[in-house]
Task: structure prediction
Amino acid sequence: MSSTLTSITVPLGETASEDGLAALLGSPGTPSADFCWIRRGSGLIGFGEAARFEATGPDRFMLGEQWWRSLILEATSIDPLQLPGTGPVAFGSFAFSKTSEFASRLVVPELVVGLRDGLLWATLISLTGSTPTRAQLDESLGRFVPALLRNGALDDASLTGADDENGEALDAVVRPGSLGEQDWMDAVEQGVQRIRQGAVEKIVLARDVLVELPTEVRAPQVLARLSSRYRECWTYRVDDFVGATPEMLIQVVGRTAQARVLAGTLDRRDAATRPESEGELDFAERVLAGSAKQRHEHQIAIDSLVNALEPFSAVTDAHEEPFILELPNVWHLASDVKAELLEAEGHVPSSLALVNALHPTAAVCGTPTLPAGSIIRELEHLDRGPYAGPVGWLDGAGNGEWGIGLRGGLLGGETARLFAGCGVVEGSVPETELAETWAKFRPMLEALGVSV
Result:
């Protein structure tokens, strides 16, 4: 069988649907999307599988880039739109650590449905060597998204997602993962000691919990709830890795690269302690932006990203003053960074090439990177797998969006393994950091139907 990649992209019309692609997540008669990348209803969802690449080790990004380039080099694509995300697309999830046993992967779906600036399209991808036809694309739509084929466009009234805001809480059991709470707090204290000794300036320590449910986890319902409740986040799925990340590692459109950096977190439930005369957002501003510890942690993350981007960009622009990102579970100190990419040998770097240069940032590892990574492996007793690794997509032109795999977990049968972490600096308090992890577990626990 030929290994030549071919594809056809067909516009499906415009839509003003507020839910956008989220309406297809578990709509009646629609199989579960195997791949997902949605924010504010726009993005990409994928069904089936045309091609797959997997790798482990320190060269996982470079090997993935080489594999994708080899496919695209000989590819034939009918794409009248020529937009970011049209034509052949690969979804990816990469391990946080070069020592992880988790198989980093790029997967090309059989069918991709996309929505950008109100324009809906579908792409059928094949490795047979023969360019797919419109009739074959319609047949694929009929198998994977029959409701969309019937309506010809997204329609909030006729496409109802799987979200059930009034569903009863499940009788689930949440168990400690690699470390129990006290052991993890002891690890945080040891991390603080390493910082005071001058070994590092910051480390990020993560922990996991295992959720045992009475019934099989329904990924479409989890995705629908996340995309509905966390519209400002990027809801993702690559195989069994599912979540809604608020942090963009890198987005590339043409020559422009953008990122969203988060460091500094406040549980929204803490607002109950504020003075009656103070508004919630003012409270968040005072506690986060007014904290030397939070500002210091945030600046470390900004510097880490800007320094890593410098060799690839002519101009880098970062907000001088971080803003407060308001999410249903927490507030974050956030900064957006924008860079104009330089050409090298007539080409700008692809989004995946930039991922290779940027990961891991101080926001998920620490600084300096190498000693921070070594301390993480020593104290966490945890293979993070895809947690805090890059997750997202790229297209044949090198455009792409790669978030950091946060606020997520690995789903399997009647269990889910969830991850959360915290930045540890000299002023960190173990009990406070533990409470922060529970705030970060909350999106996935709620999406699973677990009372928190």
